[in-house]
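Lab meeting, action items carried over

1. Structure of the two-component assembly. Owner: GW. Status: complete.
Input record:
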Amino acid sequence: MQIFLPIAEVSVNAFTLVGLGGLVGLMSGLFGVGGGFLITPLLFFIGIPPAIAVATGANQVVASSVSGVLAHVKRKTVDFRMGGVLLAGGLVGSGLGVWVFTILQEVGQVDLVVQLCYVVFLGLIGAMMLQESIRALRRSKNPTYRKRSHQHMWVHRWPAKMKFRASGLYISVIPPLLVGVAVGVLAAIMGVGGGFIMVPAMIYLLGVPTKVVVGTSLFQITFVTAFTTVMHAVSYNTVDIMLAVLLIVGGVIGAQIGTTLGARLRAEQLRILLALLVLLVCGKLALDLFLRPDELYSITTEAR
Amino acid sequence: MRVVLTVLLALWLTGGPAVAQTGEEPAPVSETGEVIPTFPDPSQRQRVIAAIAKRKEQPAEQVVAGLSRDSVAITASFDGSEILIYGAIKRETPIPDGPPLQIIVTVEAPSRPLTIWRKERKAGIWINTEKVEIGAAPGFYAVATSGPMNDILQEDWDRRYRISLPLALRAYAGKLAVEDAVPFTEALIRLRESNGLYRLDEGSVKLVDQTLFRADVRLPANLIEGDYKTRIFLLRDGQVMDVYRAPIEVRKVGLERWLYRLAFDQPLIYGLMSLAVAVIAGWGASAAFRKLRRA
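Predicted assembly:
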């Protein structure tokens, strides 16, 4: 069933979109990631203009993170204070990102920068996840391994300290603010939630306990992507609600199925699979950048 | 036959104002920003009018035509549309001797400015480096002919009416930053041809007894909105004898139109609405599945 997207002005198969949303939702349910970093490049592959893919991707992330954060609030695994600080940084970063986006659009380099960001971050994340899951697999075979408990890091020496009770931390507000800004910029430029950056940053840089990391990052992501969606809609009219609805329908169903499935399968092996998948998408995008393209020319139409 | 002609004539008469648009092509703008008069250049226009008048003295041949539809509605399930353009040649005298009559039909979408980029290898990766800005290029352009374009249309007439694809693109906008812009415009035509947005269908106009003709023009699914122009050229010996013009209105309708207008007129409300949809969907799905699991 072909459907004409009012803003993207292209006609695509509705089932492809629902399926795509479902697939990404399934993974986000299985692996506990937002899925934004997969959906945006997949939209590029099926021919949605990058600017629209990014803005609509952000909108889709709102839907998937809302249902996630609700579950975490219920389990009391959200550090609202930490989330608030991250959010303050995130809103600044998102505004900054949308501004950078404008400049890129003017000089005709949106596609390049978005693709480059994807190659770099997907590459990093994929490699990290692969390493992490292989290590976890070894650890499960070798029970003598012990994790170091509480450690003091350089961020603990910065000024403007603040108490984060739910995380059991007493650290400077500057590092979480900076992490928030970075994630906000990524959200605006790449159309992702940024959970894949924020989660490791919170664990390794801020020392937030793993228990509250996912809930807190989802809390921040919900608001930052919501803000990004509105910013993109107001400044560029690039949010395609029809596209978003189809992706969301697939996404929420897929996410629920994924969560159920995930509980029954072995996590480490799944993580390796996800890592390989991420590297695959990264490789495809990288090839597009490094190999001589079939078509050297491209057309951009001015804003209507 | 006569009945058909009368009906067509009546159609043509009611569509009179459309014919009066003859020669209202916007003139292109040169590199320095001044207007280059191509057609209608005043002197040329006089000559053409004189030529037409001369032909009118010796009974002229005229096109009378109709379209199967004069508006296209883009709905959510829109996946292209077929337009049938049909008509006849009206003449008072027997068919003249000489080379046979030929027909060219063009359907043209409104023009928009655009930029063509060329990628180049810089530091190992392919990035957009050079660009050519086109002042106005139609978002859709289809040419259907009754024979090979080069044989049935003389170049100067082509230039005058901007019939063939390269000529339908209007002049460059601003100062040219590249030495040779031709590969850029060729790329534009190539890209849009592969999208089905630009099309040349030689020999697709069916002409019967040099009197009746029909052409089927397929509009692709990726159309832009606007007032489309249809032109039918009557040609003899490579020269344009008569032009018939008719508009086609392409509009988004229903939900499509409402969303599109809202997105551009009330972007804040539209953005908030998109958000609301996302939040409700996310919350609703988790609530629904929780109920399902409990049941």
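2. GW to write a short summary for the group page. Key points so far: The two ends of chain A are 28 Å apart (CA to CA). Residues 146-150 of chain A have pLDDT under 50 and may be disordered.
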